[in-house]
Amino acid sequence: MDTLVDIRNYLPHREPMLMVDLILTIDAQSVETIFLIKEDNIFVDKNIFIEAGLIENVAQTCSSIVAQKYFANPDKEENVSVIGFISTLKNLKIYELPKVNTSIITRATLVSKFTGDDYTLCTMSCESFHEETQLLECEINLFIQKTNPIMQ
């Protein structure tokens, strides 16, 4: 798919923890996202987007590939609830931290995936850029599980 997509169609994250604005491209093996760093972001310190913000941006970018199976039909009335977490970061290299009011492009490629009934484990290769400057590269392992929404 090569259309701009609101990341909220694929992830449960909302402000202030949403660290991706739009999906630029996505398919079963790769994804590319964009994120504008604003001054009021919780991961901004002294006008710099800190390391934890870059890692959360990468995790959300990666999660969208796996989570799309749970959020494939955003117009559907069903309330989907998922939990997810980073199980491992490997070979993390942070080259530079971006400043406020810059956009970062993050790309992730699926390396491996295991899918159970209501969960997925995956390994992804990731990198983030501001214009031509590489900010980060790493390999990330994620665990994502569909949960039962709380009945009210």
Mean pLDDT: 84
Specify the number of helices. Answer: 1
Structural class: mainly beta
Number of beta-strand segments: 9
- Give a short account of the largest sheet: 7 strands, antiparallel
Strand order within the widest beta sheet: 1-2-3-7-8-9-6
Keyword list:
mainly beta; seven-stranded antiparallel β-sheet; 1 helix; 11% helix
Describe the structure.
- The protein has one helix at 51-67; strands at 5-6, 22-26, 30-36, 44-45, 48-49, 81-94, 103-115, 119-130, 133-147.
- Strands 1-2-3-7-8-9-6 form a 7-stranded antiparallel beta sheet, with helices on one face.
- The longest helix has 17 residues, at 51-67.
- It is mostly beta strands and 152 residues long.
- Strand 8 and strand 9 form a beta hairpin.
- It is globular, with a radius of gyration of 15 Å.
- The protein has 1 helix and 9 strands.
- The termini are far apart.
- The model has no long low-confidence stretch (mean pLDDT 84).
Brief digest:
The chain has one helix spanning 51-67, and strands at 5-6, 22-26, 30-36, 44-45, 48-49, 81-94, 103-115, 119-130, 133-147. By secondary structure, the protein is mainly beta.
Topology:
Elements: E1 5-6, E2 22-26, E3 30-36, E4 44-45, E5 48-49, H1 51-67, E6 81-94, E7 103-115, E8 119-130, E9 133-147
